[in-house]
Amino acid sequence: MSRNTFRFLLSLLLIGALFLSACAPPAPQPVAAPTTPPPAAAKKLEIFSWWTTGGEAAGLLKLFDMYKQKFPDVEIINATVAGGAGFEAKPALKARMLGGDPPDSFQVHMGRELIDTWVVTGYMEPLDDLFKEEGWEKVFPPGVLEIISYNGSYWSVPVNIHRANVLWYNKKVFEANGWKPPATFDEFFTLAEDMKAKGITPLALGDVGIWASTHLFEVILAGTLGAEKYNGLWTGQTDWNGPEVKQALETMAKMLEYANPDHSALSWDQANDLVIQGKAGMTIMGDWVDADNLAKKFADSGWAAPPGTQGIFVALSDTFGLPKNAPHPEQVREWLRLVGSKAGQEAFNPVKGSICARNDCDPKLFGPYLQSAMQDWAKDAIVPSLAHGAAASESWVTLINDVMTVFVTDRDVAKAQAGLAQACKDAGVCK
Amino acid sequence: MRHISWDRIFSILVILPSALAIAVFVYGFIGWSGWVSLSNWDGLRPDLSWAGFGNYAKLFATPRFQIDIRNTVVFTVSFLTLCILIGLGLAILLDQRVRGENLFRALFLFPMAISFIVTGVTWRWLLAPGDPAAGRLTGINVLLDGLNLPLSRWYTDPTVLYIQPTSELGQFLGRVGLGFLATPTFGIPVAMFSIVIAATWQMSGYVMAMYLAGLRGIPDELREAARVDGADEWQVYRHIVFPLLRPITLSVVIILGHISLKIFDLVAAMSKKGPGFATDVPAYFMFETTFQGDHYAQGASIAIFLLISVSLLVIPYLVYSTRREAEL
């Protein structure tokens, strides 16, 4: 072979390779045809979530084990992206969904995050038949069923419920000083003064990435406005320019005076460490703090509803759905049956540190905090969480996060209120 | 003749695959981003209807973006200045033929081998300020406290230094119609310097290596000739060495400049947008608004803005260096 022929063949090969890779047919997409079972080799199930640490990862693996026992021939792919509240995972998911490469099923917060991001835009399959077959309409509370439905259909299966409004404190420190958890904002500030005088940081806050401040704000909003007006904020019925929102912002500005000054350097669990060590008095955070305390073997944890939110349950929930064009829809349906089942939820939730979305789980399986949460869940007014995707669309939450980023620093109530009102308009909810 | 044309065909064939790939995956996608930036795509569903330049007008009116531009300018200027001063200083010291030069050179260069994410996480711990009022100290503040030096709030400091409108200078600016200069928009966010410290730690060794190569490229005869003419060491540097290092400085400015304009990973790992956006940068805003807020058109406008600002830096340099090559 002469040198030129060799070169010519080599370049043909290169170009051929390029065109072949560019023109290769996309991986065969199984069309949802339940009559023909997919070939044995294709039995896979890819679950996308941000459950990577401690109890949440352990809970997920428990569900996987249960699934494998039932379907030993299905290979489960655990696609996780680490990061608190899914702030890193969600962009990765969007890139996959927009790129036409959906995972089989993915973790998504119940509420506007599910509906506005994925359902209204037409990326999900309805699950009405599954809800009927499994009788879920009877076991999930009506409030939850309402939040996961849109246009008369159900779009995802809730696996757990978390409570956002919990005030966590160190029982030992409180008992030693004769303190009681504050029931009103006035009591909160009196207590905070006392703590400050004793050299204890009153409020531990860890808002790196800002969502913990938005979380604090939603709890103050609920405590100031009450359940009904709080709900009205997300439908445009409560005026963002009204006096109650102003009052909530003023309360928050005052609360931040009592928070640790390095809050923007800490995460929520590092803030909880301050409470565990007795360096800070209280922290207002969701009930995943309970799992954190258990993991850190901290037994003296006390909890109460934050000021003004007695009888209100600010809820968020992790759910799983079925995206359109998911590669293995049959395996996903079985997965959804499992996460919605009593056995599945009873296995997952005690480990994850959340309560069941179903109302028939056995309380004896849960720790003392979760038992109290189950009682509140049954009787409290349930309202959606803002910071965790239930109350407002993601684009709205992003705008509110931006307002909070500035407000936490400059504490300019008038400017923040104007920003919040504008955010509601930009989100298309207020006029 | 036949052989030459064969060679030509061969070279075209070999370049073709990568040329096609670059055309699609670089320029094609730049064009795509440009199109998206001029569209109405707001929300997850693509909407490529024409919006015109309204997205850009809105972007520049967004307070967060104005803060981002301020932060980028502050970061770029201080990062470049520090890197050049430290890099040149180290290079001159190493150029004195010290013993163990290889060891020092490797030592100063090592940080560059680390990714900005690792640098960011490490410096986030080192510069974590703790809560001095409550007697809880962390990171470098422990050291500063031990040395009785004033403590800093580092990247959690929301302070923005700017000319007070009530000060004499501020009043003067107000009188000559430049009152806008005496606002936080033209201030200096203190928190940004924590990012500058981390970035300088990582990149100054690289600058040192470039200057060291430049110094070694200056023939000893030139320095000797200057010394024979009676120049002292400072004059040798002032009149011989520094002018000959100018092309190196230009390369350093280009390379570090485009890094600092596009910086994302370091900020994302270290402080994210920071207190009151004190450490926010356009690339981080772009990430949040696109992938968390679903404001795709706005995100694409920021991307195009970044591309243009980097081009303004790089293209003149490319033109200059191609011309010089042509002259040689």
Throw out a few tags for this protein.
heterodimer; A: 431 residues; alpha/beta; D-Maltodextrin-Binding Protein, domain 2; 2 domains; 4-stranded mixed β-sheet; 18 helices; 49% helix; B: 328 residues; mainly alpha; MetI-like fold; two-stranded antiparallel ribbon; 14 helices; 2 strands; globular
What does this structure look like?
- The complex is a heterodimer of chains A (431) and B (328).
- Chain A is of the alpha/beta class and 431 residues long.
- Chain A has two domains: 40-162 and 317-379, D-Maltodextrin-Binding Protein, domain 2; 163-315 and 385-426, Periplasmic binding protein-like II (D-Maltodextrin-Binding Protein, domain 2, 3-Layer(aba) Sandwich), CATH 3.40.190.
- Chain A is 49% helix and 14% strand.
- Chain A has helices at 3-23, 54-70, 89-98, 112-119, 128-134, 136-139, 142-147, 171-177, 185-197, 211-233, 243-256, 268-276, 288-295, 329-340, 342-352, 368-379, 394-410, 413-426, and strands at residues 44-49, 75-80, 105-109, 149-150, 153-154, 157-158, 160-163, 166-170, 201-204, 280-285, 301-304, 312-316, 318-320, 355-356, 381-384.
- Chain A has a five-stranded mixed beta sheet, sandwiched between helices.
- In chain A, helix 2 packs antiparallel against helix 15.
- Chain A starts with a helix and ends in a 5-residue tail after the last helix.
- The relative contact order of chain A is 0.17.
- The model of chain A is unreliable at 25-40 (pLDDT under 50).
- With 328 residues, chain B is mainly alpha-helical.
- Chain B has a single domain (38-327), classed as MetI-like (MetI-like fold, Orthogonal Bundle), CATH 1.10.3720.
- Chain B is built from 14 helices and two strands, in the order ααααααβαβααααααα.
- A two-stranded antiparallel ribbon of chain B has the order 1-2.
- In chain B, helix 3 runs antiparallel to helix 11 (246-262) and helix 11 packs antiparallel against helix 14 (296-327).
- Chain B starts with a helix and ends with a helix.
- The model of chain B has no long low-confidence stretch (mean pLDDT 92).
